[in-house]
Amino acid sequence: MKKAKLFGFGLTALALTLMLAACGGGKNSSTDSTGGKSADGDAAHSVVIVTDIGGVDDRSFNQSAWEGLQAWGKEHDLKKGADGFDYIQSNDASEYVTNIDTAVSNGFKTVFGIGYLLADSISTAADANPDTQFGIIDSVIEGKDNVVSATFKDQEASYLAGVAAAHTTKTNTVGFIGGEEGAVIDRFEAGFHQGVIDTAKELNKDIKVEIEYAASFGDPAKGKALAASMYQKGADIIFHASGGTGQGVFQEAKDLNETGSKDKVWVIGVDSDQDKEGKYKTKDGKEDNFTLTSTLKGVGAAVQDISNRALEDKFPGGEHLVYGLKDGGVDLTDGYLSDDAKAAVEKVKEEIIDEKITVPEVPKDVKE
């Protein structure tokens, strides 16, 4: 594989693009190839994403990818469908191979696997279909000129989340809930845990980090149960990196906050701004929010960028593209952080960018 490269999009710029993107559609008039259509009206390029089991409405990883692809379609006046852009949803891991085969059979020129769990299926399909371009998000496939790999420095944004949690917790107990164990979620856990511990030392606090895994990215019930246990143990902030499972974490926090049975608890969102998931009404009927902050991950930006390169016959096959804080590939929202917490996050962010802080990608053995 070619040497890894860093490419920055700027998450703010992407957000503006996504706000303008429709959920499909487009004009029927033909444009030149730079506008997405060939002279005879056919799409000059077509792109599809094959989701992980969370689906395009997981309010997280898959949804970000789909929003990025929709923005690409809107940008180039393309329709949702086989001659433009589309998604194929996986409801179970057993569907990955079939869904990728369907994407190839339908003639899509670039096929993305959204999530590291699709890496083996994408790799196999790339060998069988050398004329099709493939992209894998959150994993690396080496030695194939028709595959581009895109990964993110999740540990950097997660470290910032740890700093925010350490500055905010009142109980000095915080939690982390992961989906399935693996190299990607390792980065989230490692960064968050280190951010909490480093900040606790600076603040002269003794903060405990509870860590649990749901063994699934699509099990809200398990997420809710794990969150209930953590909050019961005294955690007042939970950072989840669990895809659709995280919906259960939000539901448990909402139930606790609406009943007012204990002091306010918080959730830290993942991959996209999950502020909306934290809206609730207090026991006395007031509007409030418990999404403390969210880590941002430019999955949609990566899909959009690679799709544009493919359209321009500059598909970065064989390359590994890496996105981090320095190039705007990951970040953290301000959310409802205190001024002190925001200042601390900003300070640490600059230190990471300046390489004064190196954030670990592999967690210490802290699981109970």
Automatic annotation (TrEMBL):
Membrane topology of this protein: Lipid-anchor
This protein's record includes keyword RNA-binding: no
Signal peptide bounds: 1-21
GO cellular component: plasma membrane
Localization: Cell membrane
CDD domains, per database record: PBP1_PrnA-like
Pfam families: Bmp
Keywords of the record: Cell membrane, Lipoprotein, Membrane, Signal
InterPro entries according to UniProt: BMP_lipoprotein, Peripla_BP_I, PnrA-like
Keyword Methyltransferase: no
Coiled coil feature spans: none
Lineage: superkingdom: Bacteria
ABC transporter substrate-binding protein PnrA-like domain segment(s): 47-361
Family: Belongs to the BMP lipoprotein family.
The protein, known as: BMP family ABC transporter substrate-binding protein
